[in-house]
Specification:
Chain lengths: ~200, ~475
């Protein structure tokens, strides 16, 4: 009973926040609602027993994609009024594509042969006490060891690339040099000066 | 399944490359004085050594890392060529790089990582490894394309290449997911098992088409060639030299691997695609090059046309002699391209400004007879004039096509190469018979001259080298190992 209740709460929250993404006036609110709907989707994954997917959902979509959106919105100067005008131009195309998608979903629901044995995904179900994360970890570090290492090199190359394209050595930029800071000495950096005071009578 | 140690010994050259790339990266970032120069020299030596290592490693088939990599004579031979041409590119770029930025030690390291990606591409044996290898190969290329970050054209080239490359990756991934859905595996052996005992389903064909679209982008075959001229023009000339050589070889070998490996039994469903791409690339490459005035754009269209010629060998049923023809053609293409780029880079318009237009080359024969001579040798070779290497490459390819009964394709290729000869020989005419352009000066270095002389000797005396050296035998062995 309780999981079912949770499921309805999560799905209602997803639908409501997805609607708010479209209808809220400020783009920044839209992004925040988008994040909210992602987190609820992660909750539904948790209910389905896919805890790894739920975590990835939070890390990738909330941590990376939504934050990217936030940055884009903060960097660019959006005017809600002009966006409204633009939306009016593309409304019919959007409605048309949405209608086709909706039709496809309805057709899929009402086609009995899709759910027949012929089209079922054939796979082995393995009974195990391990969690998804543990199983994935076991696979990644043994069977897909090579692929895991190659991914690491891709990330290294991405890092080198980012540095090559953005780091500039300019003379006037003052950088933090940690060793210099640590080696700082009160004797060298503090100078005691006698000031002759003239006291007016 | 072998142990980790055994598997690692089989890919010892790649491991050596990885370790030295990381050591050089450390060296570059911590040693400030002359770091770029030292990294340049050491990475060249590393690549030549790895190339040599590939040749002396055992050439028998070994399947390693849970069937995700395969090493055989084909992969050994092609990897050796790839590493060698990358090393030549670093030699070519050294002078330019030191003049551009003395601290830019990342340039050779990016080339090292890209070569590593190419090596993995050639020996990948499942779709996941293949995809990761393609990304590892192309990510450094995007960075290299926009390496001159203060230059607007270079930035444009980088962005264009990156966006279109991402598109091609997504096409490849979509195709791979369809293939996985309809065969139940990402491993090449499993896929070929499934396709051999059941008839080819429509979904699988769609998957193959998408995978091919992603891969043909990498060799700039015709429907996916649009990025090539812009990226070639915008990037720095040494970077263009890299784009035109090693990645093309790697992508072509990967096509051979994937088409004659997992999809060998669906030959009749992809043969037409390859024939179409081949004809379209030859035609577009040759016709569009006629009107070009920029020399790098001309070379871009010429590389598109050459990929078309190479694809003729791929449109044939598998036989060792076809693969041999393909490999020899690619080897000649690489050497001629390296030579042409070394010629272009030894000339400059004014201090630090490289030669851009074909008209800049007018009359250089009077001032610099050797550069003019070698440039015309490479152009005659591209055009396929008999005693030079390019003729034998084309001869081998057309002979394979005729032996397999594809007369129309061979005749079409012959006619198109006549059109190609026009603009290649036009450059020779500009170099020898046009009014001299006095502002061109020479900016040669030792590396440039050595590369130029080596390529010229290879192109002129190709028939002697081919008969005396073991290249033909090695290529034949490589062809046999594909099955």
């Amino acid at each position: 009973m309780f999981p079912v209740l949770l499921f309805y709460i999560f799905s209602l929250a997803i639908i409501a926040s997805a609607l708010m993404v479209i209808f809220s006036k400020q783009p920044i609110n839209s992004v925040l609602f988008l994040i909210f709907s992602f987190i609820n989707a992660a909750g539904i994954f948790l209910l389905a027993g896919a805890e790894f997917l739920a975590l990835i959902m939070v890390i990738v979509y909330v941590g990376a994609v939504a934050v990217l959106f936030l940055f884009v919105i903060m960097m660019l100067d959006f005017n809600p009024d002009t966006i409204k005008k633009e939306v009016g131009k593309h409304l019919y195309v959007g409605l048309f594509i949405g209608f086709i998608l909706f039709l496809e979903i309805i057709l899929m629901m009402y086609s009995p042969e899709l759910f027949s044995y012929e089209y079922q995904i054939v796979g082995n179900t393995v009974k195990t006490s391990l969690t998804n994360t543990e199983i994935l970890g076991n696979l990644i570090y043994t069977e897909y060891f090579l692929q895991f290492q190659i991914s690491g090199f891709i990330l290294l190359v991405a890092m080198i690339g980012a540095i090559v394209l953005t780091l500039r050595h300019r003379d006037y930029v003052r950088r933090q040099i940690v060793s210099d800071q640590v080696a700082r000495d009160p004797k060298l950096s503090i100078e005691l000066v006698d000031i002759k005071l003239k006291i007016r009578k | 399944m072998g142990s980790l140690l055994n598997d690692s010994l089989v890919i010892a050259p790649e491991l050596f490359l990885i370790v030295s790339a990381i050591i050089l990266l450390m060296l570059g970032s911590f040693k400030v004085k002359n770091s770029a120069k030292i990294v340049l020299y050491l990475s060249t030596i590393t690549l030549f050594f790895v190339s040599f290592l590939e040749l002396i490693m055992p050439w028998d088939i070994s399947i390693i890392f849970n069937e995700s990599l395969i090493e055989n004579s084909f992969s050994r031979f092609t990897k050796s060529i790839i590493f060698m041409s990358s090393a030549f590119v670093i030699i070519l770029s050294s002078r330019w790089l030191i003049r551009y930025d003395e601290k830019a030690f990342e340039y050779p390291i990016l080339i090292l990582f890209s070569s590593l990606g190419m090596a993995l591409m050639v020996s990948a044996n499942d779709l996941i490894t293949l995809y990761l290898a393609i990304e590892l190969q192309s990510l450094p290329l995007y960075v290299l394309a926009s390496f001159r970050r203060d230059n607007i054209n270079s930035g444009e080239a980088g962005i264009k290449y990156f966006v279109l490359g991402a598109l091609s990756s997504s096409l490849f991934l979509f195709g791979a997911s369809l293939v996985y859905g309809f065969t139940g595996s990402v491993e090449f052996f499993e896929i070929s098992k499934v396709t051999s005992y059941s008839e080819v389903s429509a979904g699988l064909v769609v998957g193959i088409v998408f995978i091919l679209s992603g891969l043909i982008f990498k060799i700039s075959g015709v429907p996916f060639h649009m990025w090539t001229p812009d990226v070639y023009e915008g990037s720095a000339t040494p970077v263009t030299a890299f784009f035109a050589t090693a990645p093309k070889m790697a992508a072509m070998c990967m096509l051979v691997n994937i088409l004659y490996g997992p999809f060998a039994d669906s030959f009749y469903s992809w043969q037409q695609i390859i024939i179409f791409v081949s004809i379209a690339s030859m035609a577009l490459g040759s016709f569009a090059a006629i009107k070009q005035t920029n020399i790098k754009r001309l070379l871009a269209y010429s590389s598109i046309a050459h990929m078309g010629f190479t694809l003729i060998a791929l449109a044939l049923p598998l036989s060792p002699s076809n693969i041999q023809a393909l490999l020899i053609y690619m080897l000649i293409y690489l050497m001629a391209n390296l030579g042409v780029f070394s010629c272009i880079m030894s000339l400059e318009k004014s201090e630090g400004e490289s030669v851009k237009d074909i008209s800049d080359l007018s009359g250089i024969s009077k001032k610099y007879p050797f550069i003019a001579f070698s440039l015309s040798i490479f152009m005659f070779s591209f055009a396929g004039i008999p005693p030079l290497a390019g003729f034998f490459g084309k001869y081998l390819i057309f002979r394979s096509a005729i032996e397999n009964g594809l007369f129309l394709l061979a005749i079409f290729g012959l006619l198109i190469s006549v059109i190609g000869a026009y603009y290649y020989i036009n450059i020779v005419k500009v170099v020898y018979f046009d009014e001299s352009n006095s502002s061109i000066t020479k900016s040669s270095s030792k590396g440039l001259s050595i590369t130029n002389i080596a390529c010229t000797i290879f192109i002129i005396f190709f028939i002697i080298i081919y008969t005396l050296s073991p290249i033909a035998e090695l290529a034949r062995l490589a062809g046999i190992s594909i099955n």
